[in-house]
Amino acid sequence: MNPGESGRVHSEVLGNSCLNGLDDLHERSAGSQGATLGPSEDDSQLDAYSRAVTSAVERMSPSVVHIEVHQALPERNARRSGEPRERQGGGSGFVFTPDGLILTNSHVVHDAARIAVTFPDGHRVPATMIGDDPASDLAVIRVERPGLDEPSLLAAALGDSQRLRVGQIVIAIGAPYGFQSTVTAGVVSALGRSLRSYSGRLIDDVIQSDASLNPGNSGGPLVNSAGCVVGVNTATILPAQGICFAIGINTAKFVASRLLRDGRIRRSYIGVSGQTVPVHRRVVRFYDLPKESGALVLSVEDDSPARRAGLREGDVIVALEGQPVAGVDDLHRLLTDVRVGVSSALTLLRHTDKIEVKIVPEEAR
Prior knowledge:
The protein is of the alpha+beta class. The protein has 2 domains: 1-261, Thrombin, subunit H, CATH 2.40.10; 268-363, PDZ domain (Pdz3 Domain). The protein has 8 helices and 20 strands. The strands form 4 sheets. Strands 1-2-3-6-5-4 form a 6-stranded antiparallel barrel. A 6-stranded antiparallel β-barrel has the order 7-8-9-12-11-10. A hairpin with a 7-residue loop joins strand 7 (169-174) and strand 8. The longest helix is centred in the N-terminal third of the chain and has 22 residues, at 39-60.
């Protein structure tokens, strides 16, 4: 795929049927409403649910793959023969373009020395990394066509995570513990959650569902009743039951297009470490601050934008370019690629004084 073709990811794989999964399910069950349910009517309702799940699985399963990853361990752990010892792991993913692009989680393939992909028909082929973004826990890998029977892979249809509703049926497909093509079903439990990625940044607009996930499900698709991907399964809270998370497919579309274009996601940084702290109420009222907390500067890196702008330890950042900063997560959210090399106004509280400095964020490495 050429860099200019990455924009087609949004339009080529998103069909109208992907936007109507919930409506289709309503139509299937509409004929049985308004009557007292007897045994046969109750069976009909169960069959409608079963048909929704089975048809979605039949449509999606050919696009779901198992990903096997080999990571080289440091030299100090090498065998006596001198060859590096490898650690093996794995996860799931799904094909989203016919020419072999696969979407998965960053933590599944990050720092991989070798990647292999196994398709539902049993074919196992090597894969190469296109790019990964630990901050959103998403990655794109690619497989070549030789060795497979079909001229092109069956790409999954991508839906619209903004159209999801709480209570909507969702299905998770993946390879937990290596058991390929495992299906679990549930409902959307909540929308708009935030989840901290492995890099420490918050991932916004995360989908919470009770479709059971286990190790190995990571990177697999979360599918609606129309068989269209609405999320990328990424995490579960192990002590709990039925609290699982997926990154919205709208976020994944954006990240995938940037990874295809640049191989990475550009973000800006200013060179401080900090923590979220409350601001005294008197100070909040005196300066009419929109938030009652800010990002406390714990340290300033040498030769960084913050050092050149005159930031000091103990400063509390409360705004960037007029946008409120209630803490470290807000600061991360505002330091996007559009800030790179652009002079921006940073509002600080220094002791009891409110000051504004000009800072030019640099590209994060």
